[in-house]
Amino acid sequence: MSLRVDVCTEDDLAVLLAGETSRHLAHHHRERFAVQAQGSGHYLLAWRDGVNVGRASLTAQSKYAPVRERWPGCAEVNALAAFPQGQGTGTALLRLADSLARADGHQRIGLAVDPDDPGPRRLYERLGYRLWDGGPVVDEWVELLDDGGSRPHADPSDYLSKPLRENTAA
Ligand SMILES: CC(C)(COP(=O)(O)OP(=O)(O)OC[C@H]1O[C@@H](n2cnc3c(N)ncnc32)[C@H](O)[C@@H]1OP(=O)(O)O)[C@@H](O)C(=O)NCCC(=O)NCCS
């Protein structure tokens, strides 16, 4: 089974929405595709034999104010997920994020990580990401519940980043 990673097309979005039972995820598929359509990012998808096996959003700016202040041009990866895990999907999505961010002219890329979950962090460090010295960031997001309600979250996170070009400070 060969892995294909690419940006989301309108046809891909239709496939995602047709198979999506979660209101929360359906909202995010639409939202990330809209960000891409506005030219402010890319929605990256991974496929094996026509089945969606992973995703990540790549945005032109960080969602965290302290990161934007320090590195206004820092691209950011959010919502990375692979299913099943451990088959190289996360690695392939992150490599595609690097190359798209470079092609868009970004000199740095970053992401937030759960400080209590060492698995993803190992992968990010293997790909060159390092903890910034700006302290924790708070990942604020709203979960849309299938009963129509919503639940706010505020997760303290570590911020990792890496330069995309040699000898530059983004
Ligand atoms: C994190 C995630 C996207 C990585 O994608 P993946 O396709 O599983 O990763 P790959 O197969 O490309 O690489 C495997 C590497 O991921 C890391 N890893 C990620 N999660 C891990 C876990 N739970 N246990 C062990 N290693 C893990 C390891 O470094 C592993 O490499 P190793 O086996 O040499 O130690 C995926 O595991 C996932 O969806 N996790 C749940 C959601 C999540 O935590 N997202 C990240 C939010 S910051």
TrEMBL record:
Protein's name according to its UniProt entry: GNAT family N-acetyltransferase
Region of interest (Disordered), residue spans: 148-170
Superkingdom classification of source: Bacteria
Start and end residues of each N-acetyltransferase domain: 3-165
Signal peptide region: none
Species of the source: Kineococcus endophyticus
